[in-house]
Predict the 3D structure of the following.
Amino acid sequence: MSDELVHAIADMREEEALKLVKEMVQSGVEPMAILDAARDAMAIVGQRFEEGAYFLPELLLAGEMLSQVADILKPELAKQPEIKRHGKVLIGTVKGDIHDIGKNIVTFMLDVNGFEVLDLGVDVSPDKFVEAIRDFQPQVVGLSGFLTLAFDTMKETIKTIETAGLRDGVKIMIGGGQVSEEIRKYAGADGYGKDAMAGVTLARKWVGVE
Ligand code: B12
C-alpha cells in the first residue's frame, strides 16, 4: 500500500492518496511509515519539478496533500503523549524561505514528546529569533530551511544570536530538505536532524531527558 501511496501523491491523485492514508491508518500501518512514504513522494515531485515536468501548481498541490496527510496522522501520533513538559523549543523557518511542512511536523512531534514549542512561522528574520529567545527563554532553538539560500540565512541567524550574547544559553539544531552535517558545520549549529524524530532525540539529549 505504501508504494500505491507514493505514486498517488507523486502523480497528483489527491483524493486517492487521502483515501489510501485513511485505509492504511485503519489497517494499523505505523503513522511514521506513512509519513516516510509521503516523503518519498515529495522527493519524486521535487525531481519532476527540477526536470521541468512539474511546475509551481504541482509543488503547491503536493504541499497541500502532505499537510492533509499530516492532519490525518496527528491524532494517531498523539496517542502516546507524554504529559510532563521537558523544556522549551523555539522553532521557525529562516528568512527568505517559506517551506513549512517539514517544520510543522517537527513542531508537532516535539509537542507530543513533551516539549513546550513556540513556532515563529516562516520567513523569520535573525532579529525576530533573537527577540523570541529573550522573551521565551528556550533551551533549544530549531532552524528549518529547504532552499539552498537558507544555509546562509541559518549561518547569519546563528551569528546574530551570538552577537546578541545569547549563543551560550541555547543549543541550536537545524534541518530541512538538503541540510546535512556539512551544513551544520558551515552554519555553526550544534546539531542537525534529518527528520522530526532526530530533532526530538537531539532536544531530549540537550535538556537531559533519558
Ligand atoms: C512543497 C514544496 C513547496 C511548497 C511549500 C509549501 C509549504 N507550505 O511548505 C511551495 C509551492 C510554496 C514551494 C515554493 C518554492 N519552492 Co519548493 N518544494 C516543495 C517540495 C516539493 C517538498 C518540500 C516538503 O514539504 N517536503 C516534505 C517534508 C516532510 O520534508 P522532509 O525533508 O522530509 O522534512 C523533514 C526534515 O526536513 C526535518 N526537518 C525540517 N525542518 C527541520 C528543522 C529542524 C530543527 C530539524 C531538527 C529537522 C527538520 O524534519 C521533517 C519532518 O520529518 C520540495 C522538494 C523536496 N524534495 O523537498 C521543493 C523544493 C524545496 N522547492 C524548491 C524551490 C526551488 C521552490 C521555489 C523557489 C520555486 C519557485 N520558483 O518559486 C519556491 C520558494 C519559495 C520560498 N521563498 O521559500 C527546490 C529548492 C531547490 C534549492 N536547492 O534551493 C525544491 C528542492 C524542489 C526542487 N527539487 O527543485 N515549494
Notes: The longest strand covers residues 87-93. Residues 39, 42-43, 45-46, 49-50, 56, 59-60, 62-63, 66, 96-103, 105-106, 142-144, 146-148, 173-178, 193, 195-196, 198-199 surround cobalamin (CB under 6 Å).
